[in-house]
Amino acid sequence: MPAVTISDFAVLPSIERPAPTATRRPVVSVTSAPSGFEGEGFPVKRAFAGVDLRHLDPFIMMDEMGEVEYAPGEPKGTPWHPHRGFETVTYIIDGTFDHQDSHGGGGRITNGDTQWMTAGAGLLHIEAPPEELVVSGGLFHGIQLWVNLPRADKLVTPRYQDLRAGQTALLSSADGGALVRLIAGDVAGHRGPGSTHTPITMIHATVAPGARLELPWRADFNALVYVMSGRGQVGPQGTPIGAGQLAVLGRGDVVEFSATADADGRGQRGLEVMILGGRPIKEPIAWAGPFVMNTRAEVLQAFEDYQRGAFGRELPHSGASALAG
């Protein structure tokens, strides 16, 4: 169960149902995320694997971290590593991560918090579970999203946004069956707290069994729907979708999906889903490891700058990454 929730959706501002004449976005593709490991060995699902970057633009990569119940001594993070040319967004649904970067940003993110790091010209950072979580074990679940920067902003000064769970805009669906957590962007006149270089919308929604969510969507944005748990249907044709699957949607004014009704009596918890959209940058992408630039020469320059120490230096870290191996 996500840490940020509410028992009565009816007390929240409601998203009005879009007009019947609005164009519902059709499903272009549904893909399944392969599992892998990141950093020092924490489990992830590669949500965008196999999807053409042209359909994802301005997004580059998204990993679902967990959901995993760690035993004592098992929690893991990442060692110090560089980034340049994009933004990393780490959203912790349940659990705790400590972050630190060489530009002075960082802090603890937990239970609905979001860390928004604009790497820009380049920095080093580290993400690790706190020592008490390593000792005790516990639930860990989150999302890391990479958002591309346009050519004009590739080398901006790094910036860190610490978005607390309480800042997230909470909304309900028109039928009262869905909780919408608006992290960044605008939906139906409501705004999330994240400040972005590239215009995007980022939402985490919980949809009760049998409920439906219809979201007005900017026509100049793309639209992606990723299911973290549960089963449902997406798009005007009711295309089936389930845990670990990503739907790429076509053009239109409305993103719509629903959670499968609890017809078998097993008490399923509904649909947990990430909804993303952004205005495509439509620029060349040269991507190698932790650097996302426009040309191969710029990527090679990033490696050279990193090797000569231009991204800063590793700092003493209070987290427990070293204990997690």
Task: Give an overview of the whole structure.
The chain has 325 residues and is mainly β. It has one domain (12-285, 292-307): Jelly Rolls. The protein is built from three helices and 26 strands. It has helices spanning 53-56, 131-136, 296-307; strands at 27-32, 35-38, 42-46, 59-70, 78-83, 86-94, 96-101, 106-110, 114-118, 123-128, 138-148, 159-163, 169-172, 178-184, 186-187, 190-191, 200-207, 212-216, 223-229, 231-234, 239-242, 245-249, 254-259, 271-278, 286-288, 291-293. The protein has a seven-stranded antiparallel sheet with strand order 1-22-19-24-17-14-13, with no helix packed on it. Strands 2-3-4-11-6-9-12 form a seven-stranded antiparallel sheet. Strands 5-10-7-8 form a four-stranded antiparallel sheet, with no helix packed on it. A hairpin with a 2-residue loop joins β15 and β16 (190-191). The radius of gyration is 19 Å and the shape is globular.
